[in-house]
Each structure stands twice: as structure tokens, then as C-alpha cells.
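Quick one, C-alpha cells below. Sequence please?
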């Protein structure tokens, strides 16, 4: 199977996972939003930020190093497994002991019991990291897709059941643990990998050669993407954070649906071209055509219809979150257009000095959050958007020096979709003026979406019909019967 077909096949299963998973997640989140109050989402938002930060120290980029490495040995896998498990146990125990001080730092003493229970998920999740990594390395996304769908369905059922039973915020904790338990169990059932009792410091050092720079970049990116929630929860309170979390749920799901398939497939695919920079760049340019086509339509469209979409999904009590949803949609657009930055750098041999740019980006986010929250949450998001746009420039320059990537050719696919999205916004605004204010919310939303789709596709068809043909060709490659058998990776055996 050619690399093109492997990428298309991987994108197909990633799309299946994300469409199914995000639709399921949206249904579950919508029901929970109607059953729980903003403070519950604010509390779990702070817990999630803490756990997301700490969980980064479980893997520390080891899984990415396994994907990037060409000559895997059994010792690499077993060492990585026990390293992850050891880190997870230590961090979980530390959370049990320090739960109260952590809660005080986050500004809410009610977090301590939630942190203690939710931190058990670190150990559960660590048991399946290597199994999942092996599937990604072989570009076999079918079984991880099934894992995600089954785990999220189980977690959703548990969360909704607990919410109906009156468990409040604990229903969200139960949902998270149920997802992790189901997902880890599935991976152990479908994977042939079984760790043996051996640990090699030599092989760990070999993995750290790549993982250390990956971890540093991921840590900085985490601060850039989660610091806003931490600042809002700490200084504005749990209820304000709850509104912010709900407002960001729709663009978050959309970001996963448009960004995650490319992000997951890009690293193993681009790693195969790491010694051919010309082909590497050409693959990125082609990927950006599809990325820009979908991203502008989705995120600008969400911003344009958020005033109707948020109350339609979550109820009228969440109407104040609509404006924030629009801003966060635009912020998500800035991020997804940089989808190839990180996997390209890693595939071409490591992050290198790009860490310095991530430091600058993280500092910009810190300033935007600390200064913006003083004037209100909208100003905080405006600062995040501005910082994201500014940091695109040095990022492209770095890639140009690293692999010869042309900044103009990278950005060129964005021009027509940006024009089409502007046309879409104008038509949606006109339709909102013409529609009667007392019309049903569902009718208003459906009419706006229909007008927006027609306006967007009209501009694309007029100026760049070839992009739609390429999208159709990619879909065709994904569903082609000859592409249904992904390359498998043989787990190295000890001699």
C-alpha cells in the first residue's frame, strides 16, 4: 500500500472515530449541561486542567519517541511501559497526599476529594499507552477507533446515570474513570503486546533523546492551551469557569474533528519522509489545502451561528456563553491552521530550538491571561488570538530553515477559504436580520447553516474547484477496498 493510501486509510478511521466520538460526546455533554449547574463544570474544569498537566509527566514524550524510532527493540517497549507505570503511581500518590494544598492553590477547597478520586485515572490510563502507541505507529487506527467509541459510550452512560441519580459533579468524575477503564481494558484485549518484567536504563536514554524535546514542547503547549482555564477558575470563580468550559465545548469538539485526524496521521506518515525534505514539504502543502478548506468553514461558521447554536444545544440558561463560543471558535481556527508544525519538526529529527519559540508563545499566553482577566474574559480570549497570530510568523520561518518549507506556499491554501468564510458570515448576518425574531430557534439555526454552506461552497467552486476534487479523491482513497488493510507492525521479540 502506498503512503498516500495509508494516509487516506488512517484519515478514514480517524474521521470515523472523531465523528462518532464527538457526536456521542456532544449528546452526552448536552444532557449533562441540562442536568448540572455551571459550578459543577467549573470544578471539574479545574480538576481536568490539573490532571492534564500532571499526566504529561507520566509519558514525557516516550510514546512519540517510539513512533519516530525506526529500529524498535523489545527492551524499548518494556522499558517505556514500566517507566509510564512508575511515573503514574508516584504522581497519583503525590496527589493523594497533596490534594488539600493543591485545592488551596486552585482557589477552591471543594476540589480535594475530587482530585483524590480522579487521580486514579492516571494509573488506569498508563496501562494502555504503549498498546495504543503501537497501533498508531503501524497506522492501524481501526482498533483505537473502536476503543474510543466503546469507552466514550460507556463513560457517557455512567455520567448521565449518576447525574440523574443526583450525584452532581461526581457524575463527571465517574464519567472520566469509566472512559479510562473501558478504554484500557479494550486495548489489552485486542493488542498482542504484553510487557515482560525488564527495564533497561540504556534503552530509556535512547528514547529520551527524542522524548525530552517532545515533552518540553508539549509542556509549553499545555501551558499555552490550558492556562486560560486555570486563570479564570482561580480569579473569576468556578461558575465563571463553568460558563467558559461550556462555551468552549463546541469549538473543542470541532477542533478534534478537524485537527485530530491530521495530527494523528501526520506524525507516522511524515516520519517516513524524514530524509526527503522536498517530498515532506509537498505533502504538507497538499495537507494544508484540505485543512484550510475544512477549518475555515467549520470555525468561522460556528462563530457566525453561535448565538443560536449554544442555547439550542444546552438550553436558554447558557445563552450568555454564546458570545464567548464565537471568540473561542476563532481562537481554535488559529490553532488548527498550525496543525503540521509539531509533527513536521518531530518527523524531521526532533524539536530542536523550536522549544524557544514555544517558550515565547507560552509567555504571550501568560501575559494575555493575566492582563486580560482584569478586564473580563472576552479580552483574555482576544489576547490569546493575537498571540497565536503573531507566533505563526517565527514558526514558519523556523520550518523554512529546517526543511525548506515555503511560508507563502503553506499559507496560500488559506486565501480562498478565508474569502469564502467572509462571504458566509455576510450571508448569515443578512439572514439573521431578515428572519423574524420570534421564529423557532431550530428553524433560525437551520436556515443560517443552509445559507452559510451555500455561500461558502459557492465561492470555493468559483475560485478553486480543484480543492473540492482533491477532497473527493482523498475520500475515495479512504473508502477504496484496496486500502482497507493497513500496514501492521511486528512487535519485536526478545531473542
Amino acid at each position: 500500500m502506498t503512503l498516500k493510501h495509508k494516509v487516506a486509510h488512517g484519515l478514514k478511521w480517524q474521521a470515523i472515530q472523531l465523528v462518532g466520538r464527538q457526536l456521542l460526546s456532544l449528546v452526552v455533554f448536552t444532557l449533562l449541561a441540562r442536568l448540572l449547574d455551571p459550578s459543577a463544570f467549573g470544578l471539574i474544569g479545574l480538576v481536568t486542567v490539573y490532571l492534564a498537566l500532571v499526566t504529561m509527566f507520566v509519558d514525557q514524550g516516550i510514546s512519540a519517541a517510539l513512533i519516530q524510532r525506526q529500529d524498535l527493540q523489545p527492551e524499548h517497549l518494556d522499558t517505556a511501559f514500566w517507566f509510564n507505570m512508575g511515573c503514574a503511581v508516584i504522581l497519583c500518590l503525590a496527589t493523594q497526599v497533596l490534594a488539600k494544598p493543591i485545592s488551596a492553590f486552585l482557589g477552591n477547597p471543594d476540589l480535594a476529594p475530587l482530585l483524590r478520586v480522579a487521580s486514579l485515572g492516571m494509573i488506569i490510563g498508563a496501562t494502555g499507552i504503549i498498546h495504543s502507541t503501537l497501533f498508531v505507529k503501524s497506522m492501524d487506527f481501526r482498533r483505537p477507533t473502536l476503543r474510543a467509541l466503546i469507552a466514550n459510550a460507556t463513560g457517557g452512560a455512567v455520567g448521565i446515570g449518576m447525574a440523574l441519580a443526583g450525584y452532581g459533579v461526581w457524575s463527571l468524575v465517574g464519567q472520566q474513570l469509566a472512559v479510562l477503564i473501558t478504554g484500557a481494558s479494550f486495548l489489552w484485549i485486542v493488542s498482542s503486546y504484553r510487557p515482560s518484567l525488564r527495564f533497561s536504563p540504556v534503552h530509556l536514554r535512547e528514547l529520551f533523546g527524542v522524548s525530552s524535546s517532545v515533552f518540553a514542547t508539549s509542556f509549553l503547549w499545555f501551558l499555552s492551551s490550558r492556562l486560560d482555564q486555570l486563570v479564570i477558575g482561580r480569579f473569576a470563580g468556578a461558575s465563571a469557569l463553568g460558563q467558559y468550559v461550556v462555551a468552549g465545548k463546541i469549538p473543542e469538539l470541532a477542533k478534534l474533528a478537524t485537527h485530530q485526524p491530521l495530527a494523528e496521521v501526520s506524525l507516522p506518515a511524515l516520519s517516513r519522509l524524514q530524509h526527503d525534505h522536498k517530498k515532506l514539504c509537498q505533502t504538507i502543502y497538499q495537507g494544508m489545502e484540505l485543512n484550510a478548506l475544512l477549518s475555515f468553514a467549520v470555525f468561522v461558521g460556528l462563530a457566525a451561528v453561535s448565538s443560536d447554536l449554544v442555547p439550542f444545544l444546552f438550553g436558554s440558561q447558557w445563552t450568555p456563553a454564546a458570545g464567548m463560543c464565537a471568540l473561542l471558535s476563532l481562537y481554535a481556527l488559529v490553532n488548527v491552521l498550525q496543525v503540521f508544525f509539531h509533527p513536521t519538526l518531530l518527523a524531521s529529527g526532533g524539536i530542536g530550538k523550536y522549544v524557544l519559540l514555544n517558550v515565547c508563545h507560552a509567555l504571550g499566553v501568560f501575559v494575555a491571561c493575566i492582563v486580560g482577566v482584569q478586564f473580563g474574559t472576552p479580552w483574555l480570549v482576544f489576547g490569546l488570538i493575537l498571540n497565536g497570530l503573531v507566533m505563526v510568523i517565527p514558526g514558519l520561518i523556523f520550518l523554512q530553515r529546517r526543511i525548506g518549507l515555503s511560508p507563502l506556499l503553506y499559507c496560500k491554501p488559506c486565501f480562498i477559504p478565508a474569502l469564502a468564510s467572509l462571504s458566509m458570515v455576510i450571508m448569515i448576518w443578512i439572514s439573521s436580520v431578515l428572519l423574524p425574531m420570534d421564529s423557532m430557534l431550530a428553524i433560525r439555526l437551520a436556515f443560517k447553516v443552509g445559507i452559510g454552506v451555500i455561500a461558502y461552497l459557492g465561492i470555493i467552486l468559483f475560485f478553486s474547484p480543484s480543492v473540492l476534487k482533491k477532497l473527493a479523491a482523498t475520500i475515495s482513497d479512504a473508502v477504496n477496498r484496496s486500502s482497507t488493510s493497513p500496514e501492521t507492525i511486528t512487535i519485536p521479540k526478545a531473542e
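The radius of gyration is 22 Å. Residues 481-490 have pLDDT under 50 and may be disordered.
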